[in-house]
Write a structure and sequence with these properties.
about 45% helix; alpha/beta; two-stranded antiparallel ribbon; Rossmann fold; five-stranded parallel beta sheet; globular
Length: about 220
Amino acid sequence: MADLLLVGWLPSSELFLRALEEAVPKINVAQISQNDLGGIIILGGAIEGGEIAVDRGEISIGSAAERVTKAFELIRRYPDLPYIFSGFSGRLSPKGVSEADAFKQLIAEQGLPDQNAQYENQSRNTYENVLYMKPMILELEAKGINGGVLTPKPWLLITSASHMYRSLRIFQKQGIEVIPVPVDYQTAHKLHWTGFDLEDGAKNWNNLLHEVIGLVAYWMTGKI
């Protein structure tokens, strides 16, 4: 009973999750010129591909849909920038369409520019996202695709706010400069001290523990 009360009382999870979401400050992307950017990186984790997408012929977007909608916004704002979507599937036994292929379909459906699109469809976790994208980023920088400029420029990085700190540390470890674009916030500035919801509380704790375990594991294995 006490465990359920702890899980359902929202401040117990919101307090720590909010700290994680605010670990990386939010930057006003609207003030950044396209000439100052190398490209856009979108990490997977929001798209439901798999067998259902094949059977139904439709791509479903999950609870972290802001990763996709923010990507659409930035691709429209910076149509000449290269962008990379990275992600195969987070499932243990994935089948059907990869997240990258699903995102490619969404790009076509939205009529967005794809002349500079790149897709990484092998990664199963955040470390592999960065590891497999690094050669693609270096190749694009070597070609000077952004206006013929060879000097490396920071890339915009889109992922969930709670996932941003771990992602940023991995990119830094790999020597790739990124500008964080956190989305998919699950907490507000104020805590809901009287709030009680088992479903929301369980989701918050799941997100929090997932990131904490990931940070510890990546730190122990030298990935961050």
